[in-house]
């Protein structure tokens, strides 16, 4: 999933892969369980230092669903310091891969 667009340039990407959400940026790829019916993320509407608002496509919904993702507890569970990691990310895009 990390094809260079989500590396040290302050840009990260979010996508889904095999039942997991994958967040890639600043040299890390973080995977965590996604909702069972998630097909894909459509667009990132907001990024605020670990808090994402995204539109997502689900198998059970004909319309996009607005979702809220808080990366801080995920990072803390992985022993990654959010105060160190998150300020390096200025923008998050959807990984179309």
Automatic annotation (TrEMBL):
Domain DUF7724: 12-95
Recorded superkingdom: Bacteria
Pfam families: DUF7724
Protein name: DUF7724 domain-containing protein
Species this protein is from: Collinsella tanakaei
